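Revision sheet: structure tokens.
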Amino acid sequence: MIDMLKRGAKVEDIETAGTIIIVGSPNVGKTTLFRKLCQKKIHVETPKNSFVELSYGELNLDGKHYKVIDIPGISSLFGNSEEELIVRDLIISEKNSTILQVIDGKNLKKDLILSCEIIELGKPMVFALNMMDEALLKGIVIDEKALRDELGVDVVMTIGNEGEGIHELKRSLIHPRVSGNHTQYSERIENGINEIQTLPHRNGFLNRAFVLQLLIEDSRILEYIKETFLSSKELERVNQIVDRVRNTNKNDLKFEIINRWVSRALEIEKSSTKILPVSKKPFWEKSSNYTYHPFYGILILLAVMSLLYLFVGKIGVVLSDNIQFTVFQNYLIPFSANLLSYIPSQFIYDAFLGTYGLISMGLAAGIAMVFPIICTFFALSVLEDSGYLSQVGILLNSLFKKIGLNGKAVLPLSLGFSCVTMATLSARALDTRKERIIVILLLWLGVPCSAQLSIFAAILASISLKAVLIIVGVIALQSLVVGYAAGKLIPGEQSTFFMEIRTLRLPNIKYTISRTVIRTKSFFREVIPLFFAASLILFLLDKLRVLDYIEMAGKPVVTGLLGLPARITEVFMLGFIRSGAGAALFKTIADTEHLSEVQIIVAMVVFTLYIPCFTSVLLGVKEYGLKIASGIGAFVVLYAFLIGIILNQLLHMVY
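Predicted:
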């Protein structure tokens, strides 16, 4: 993991005086402070084979150049989510680093639990006590000096949105301190920590955080500690100490350690905080209560999803179509055709402007995604910055938990009915690798995009209600069955979804737009080459007649096992290139070849369950890697045809 981080971060090549790593729980205003500190020297990168976004920036302090890294929100340094693993390994790999923890002044206790954990690392630290304006509106008054004394390092009060406290924060970061105010555990645990720390180690000092992980036997970090710090002789002695502490401690060690962090956080909060009476609750706090209400919360969610559908599915896709069909078809392609006319080669012409041409397909598909991508990133930023994603998770968590997800999965799944490609991208909002893979599987399997839906609606209007119910029922049932099985079989852990209810807040539009621009630039730097590569591969496969052979190989399955006309094979091939075009061809076949109701049912079920368009697949490769994307794609294709074959046989028994 550490090597992966180094390969993924270009900023590693820049010579710096040190690194500042900004950590904190979700929705504490980390990114806002990060942007205030670094201004415009920011870019976003994703470590190889990871879904986690890391934001990199540069900061000059007292004439020295520092690298600044903004990481996703976490609840623990030694948790199970991908974000927590990335953050932990990042902190381990950055030797000369300072930790800047951002704390929400309104939710002091929860953030202080993380503080107790971070202090055990023995690294220089600074605390930014953020959102103090919102805390005061709730009657929360925090004694800055008392909190500084309790934590043992500088504490700076900030209001990130307004830039208050930024100069003071920079001054504190010039000379950060290492806290000596560690959490005190039971006598046996403390003795065990001291014994292990006094043993001779390779590569410097073994901090208390690592020793605690040895005591609770965290397998994810155990191997690193053994390889980096301990010889075989020292390891044997450490194992003896660990066994003694674990055997003589009547409580579960992990539970006791976490319980002490909670107790310590409560002590610090009590000594540094006063709650004053508030005559009137702020508007955003009142609004927050409705977002997770069993009735009003659902209504608000439906309204938000409708707006999201309109914003991405209508505005973004309409702009996309205008670019693709107006700019490309009317101007760029004719202009390119005119230039290529001077080269008397049909092969070169087809390579650029043919069905799978680099311009007609690769560039057109890539550029056409600009506006939907911008709309998606902007919408995600608004939902994240406002804190609404957390509220949705609370509202629907119990429902989605049955298929290995949490409540936040409703957003990408609902967005899929607008555009599966953009929904694939929005799965970034989920917490763990496992959850994102399950969502992509469900999106690719059973969620038709708006282009398909509009054409399918016309077809459904021409068949019986019984047939419509069969189609909808079979597709919904497969999504539930596959989702449940995926939750049980796909390796990895479901996010614990321990989430404190936080107050909604109005996003800072300036920073939302800035974040959208940075994300979009970073995304297109990586994805445009993929479109060119895919176009070139499809072009070569077409010229070598491989695609024709695939179509010919598929016809016996389509005509024999599925009981459909041979031309339906073209629907599946065209549907992969552009799903709306495939659906349109299917409607033409249904109208002209007088398909039976059984054939329409089977064809619509298979086509809906069938793999989405190639832009969705390419984006899946970019986001999740070739191995995962191809594995999901292969499963979806095989599963779609298997269900179609079974359905065809069953329907002929009852129709």
